[in-house]
């Protein structure tokens, strides 16, 4: 698996990341969602450079123009609910893309103080997606903590076919999550795109320093179901 981190070079994504992480600025949900969307737009632009293009003829009012446009059939697959604002940025850039969704969530351990970082169980409850055979598939989720949500979601989407190309897209990834995905996706045909890499997970498997719970920051704190 190839890893491309947008923060390896100085660019405007760093400004959006600084705002996402700032505990004071996080109090504005619209601003938080907008920054996730803007990061996705930047990431989609960089990712577009890997697509297949061919030249087409476009008739202007004056003459025929020869324009290179992408030929990939793109499907954007998103993990609910935190992925929605991130997902929107990719659809704004790839406006002909199809979309798929899975609901995957971590099972909270009541004895979290006794569990190790990365020791979480992921449950899948919902899948809605088009056929994936031969497409360029973008699996997007803002937070790559343990990596298990990505793997669980990917396996679920494969029920609908096998993509030709796979891109995993996250805003913040833990190094542990990246290492786990390298084990699960050893092929160089898979690319992981991230805006930042953080060094550790805490005992509850949240990324540190991270930014907190992206879903709650986007949409409000959820009520835990016992």
Order of helices and strands: EHHEEEHEEEEHEHEEEH
Mean pLDDT: 91
Coarse morphology:
globular
Beta-strand portion reads 25-35%
- Major sheet: size, sense and barrel closure? 8 strands, mixed
Helix content: 25-40%
What gap, in angstroms, lies between the N and C termini?
38 Å
Unreliable residue runs: none
The oligomeric state of the chains shown is: single chain
Q: Which class of secondary structure composition applies to the elements?
A: alpha/beta
Alpha-carbon Rg, integer:
18 Å
Specify the number of helices.
Answer: 6
- Tell me how many strands there are: 12
Give an overview in words.
With 226 residues, the protein is α/β, with parallel strands linked by helices. Helices cover 29% and strands 32% of the residues. It has six helices and twelve strands. The protein has helices at residues 13-21, 29-48, 83-93, 148-157, 175-184, 214-219, and strands at residues 2-5, 53-59, 64-70, 74-80, 98-107, 121-128, 136-140, 143-144, 165-174, 190-198, 200-201, 207-208. The strands form three sheets. Strands 1, 4, 5, 6, 7, 8, 9 and 10 form an eight-stranded mixed sheet that branches. Strand 11 and strand 12 (207-208) form a beta hairpin. Helix 1 (13-21) runs antiparallel to helix 2 (29-48) and helix 2 (29-48) crosses helix 3. The longest helix is centred in the N-terminal third of the chain and has 20 residues, at 29-48.
């Amino acid at each position: 698996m190839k890893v491309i981190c947008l923060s390896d070079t100085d660019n405007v994504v760093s400004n959006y990341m600084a705002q996402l992480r700032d505990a004071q600025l996080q109090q504005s949900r619209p601003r938080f969602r907008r920054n996730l969307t803007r990061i996705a737009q930047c990431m989609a632009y960089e990712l577009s450079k890997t697509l297949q293009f061919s030249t087409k003829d476009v008739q202007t009012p004056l003459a025929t123009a020869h324009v290179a446009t992408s030929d990939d059939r793109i499907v954007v697959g998103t993990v609910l609910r935190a992925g929605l604002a991130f997902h929107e940025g990719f659809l704004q850039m790839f406006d002909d893309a199809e979309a798929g969704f899975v609901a995957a969530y971590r099972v909270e351990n009541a004895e979290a103080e006794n569990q190790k970082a990365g020791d979480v169980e992921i449950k899948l409850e919902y899948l809605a997606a088009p056929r994936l055979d031969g497409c360029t598939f973008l699996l997007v989720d803002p937070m790559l903590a343990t990596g298990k949500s990505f793997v669980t979601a990917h396996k679920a989407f494969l029920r609908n076919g096998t993509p030709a190309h796979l891109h995993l897209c996250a805003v913040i990834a833990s190094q542990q999550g990246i290492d786990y995905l390298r084990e699960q996706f050893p092929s160089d045909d898979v690319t992981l795109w991230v805006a930042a890499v953080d060094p550790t997970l805490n005992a509850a498997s949240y990324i540190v320093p991270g930014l907190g719970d992206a879903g709650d920051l986007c949409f409000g704190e959820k009520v835990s179901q016992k």
